[in-house]
Write a structure and sequence with these properties.
This protein is mostly helical and 446 residues long. It has 16 helices and six strands. The longest helix is centred in the C-terminal third of the chain and has 58 residues. The radius of gyration is 58 Å and the shape is extended.
Length: 446
């Protein structure tokens, strides 16, 4: 069977199937029929049927959360009214070609054999089916019980295992027992075979490495989500052994503490019953147990001290590596920088700044007509104009202070005119050469 030790699942629930599954018999009859030998016969029908089954097969695997499947399991899951899809083999071959599915044997063969030597008792590394599939390629339709793997789902679940470990108390040290890791992933991996497949995927990604030590398999994880795991060395094994010793000592101390408490209770019971000798033996046993507990406590403190120093040294090594990388980067960045070149560069910058200031001043002193003007001279000229304007004030006649005489009457005007006429006559006699026209005119005007 494709899933050893597991009963093949029954038909898929109605809610997991498309609407036409129960309503459109004609459409389902077409989909349950076998594919044509060649896609060229009717490419539209061929592509339509392939798209339907490809989506259904991938959705079924993701919905079930199982990374493994086989042709028989899918036929049982998609059974409809006693009929099974006749083209599922062609669909699986197409999924193999696209890389959505992979044969389990091919997947194991793609991992370095030195990385999966620990799993010889779990997997058959190169079965006959793998040999045939390697020779024939993906063009061969999978057999009914040949195990296939959902590639994307396997990668996603392997990532979940890695994150689960990182968020657990086991991540305090990169090395952990395989049995402890299996217990941690019990809810994620329904069976042991799936658990090993997920570990193989992590090994393929170089994120874990596995080693067998004294009959027990231990796993080393990479430090960091995107880091690659380093080979397991003596330090890793030594730290793991110290951690195991710490765990055993703690368990032993707890067990002895319970034993000492029991001896104390037995001594009390013996005293109540009047069995003095029995009570003394219980107290002696209690004393011996307490001395053993003290000895184990001192050993446990020593082991924990060593572990603390190892963790501190690892931190120091990380800091040292960071400093070393920083020094190397700083050397590269300062490779062409010297004090002399820096001073020369500063001088060049200052010289260029001075030149720019001179150019700006020159450009700012150019007028609209292209004539240079001196602001200071203009200000001096303006001051002189202001001083001249204050000196050259207009001299106006003084305002008359006398009161104007009252208006002259007509009689007074005629008398004044008479005097003027007499004066004019005398003047005319004194100057005979003058013309008489002015007199006539004067007399007319008057």
């Amino acid at each position: 069977m494709c899933s050893p030790g597991e009963a093949p699942p029954g038909p898929a629930p109605a809610g997991d199937l498309p609407p036409e599954w129960e309503t459109d018999d004609e459409r389902m009859a077409f989909l349950f029929s076998a594919f044509k030998q060649s896609r060229e016969v009717n490419s539209t029908e061929w592509d339509s049927k392939m798209a339907f089954w490809v989506g259904l097969v991938l959705a079924r695997g993701r919905r079930r959360g199982a990374v493994r499947t086989c042709l028989r399991e899918l036929q049982n899951g998609f059974e409809r009214r006693g009929s099974v899809p006749l083209g599922l083999g062609t669909v699986l071959r197409e999924l193999l070609r696209r890389g959505k599915l992979q044969r389990e044997s091919d997947f194991m063969a793609s991992v370095d054999s030195s990385w999966i030597s620990w799993g010889v008792g779990v997997f058959i590394l190169k079965p006959l089916k793998w040999t045939l599939s390697s020779v024939l390629g993906d063009s061969k339709i999978p057999e009914e019980e040949e195990v296939l793997i959902y590639v994307e789902l396997l990668q996603e679940k392997a990532e979940e295992v890695y994150r689960l470990y990182q968020n657990s108390a086991l991540s305090s040290h990169p090395v952990v027992a395989l049995s402890e890791l299996r217990s941690l992933c019990a809810g994620l991996c329904p069976d042991e075979r799936t658990f090993y497949l997920l570990l193989l995927q992590l090994q393929k990604e170089k994120r874990v490495t596995i080693l067998e030590q004294n009959g027990e398999k231990i796993v080393k994880f990479a430090r960091g989500l995107h880091a690659k795991v380093s080979p397991m060395n003596d330090v890793d094994i030594g730290v793991y052994q110290l951690m195991q010793s710490e765990q055993l000592l703690s368990q032993k101390v707890e067990s002895l503490s319970q034993e000492a408490e029991k001896c104390k209770e037995d001594a009390r019971s013996a005293c109540r019953a009047g069995k003095k000798q029995l009570a003394l033996r219980c107290l002696k046993s209690k004393r011996r147990t307490e001395r053993r507990i003290e000895e184990l406590h001192s050993k446990l403190d020593a082991v924990q001290g060593i572990l603390d120093r190892i963790y501190a040294s690892q931190t120091d090594q990380m800091v040292f590596n960071a400093y070393q990388a920083g020094v190397g980067a700083l050397k590269l960045s300062m490779k062409d920088v010297t004090v002399e070149r820096a001073e020369n560069l500063v001088d060049q910058i200052q010289e260029l700044c001075d030149t720019q200031d001179e150019v700006a001043q020159t450009l700012a002193g150019v007028g609209i007509n292209g004539l240079e003007t001196d602001t200071e001279e203009l200000e001096k000229e303006l001051d002189s104009l202001l001083q001249d304007s204050s000196k050259d004030s207009v001299d106006l006649p003084p305002v008359p202070q006398k009161v104007l005489s009252p208006p002259i009457s007509d009689a007074e005007l005629e008398a004044e005119l008479e005097k003027l006429s007499v004066s004019d006559g005398d003047l005319a006699q004194k100057t005979p050469s003058a013309s008489s026209e002015p007199k006539t005119a004067l007399g007319l005007n008057l």
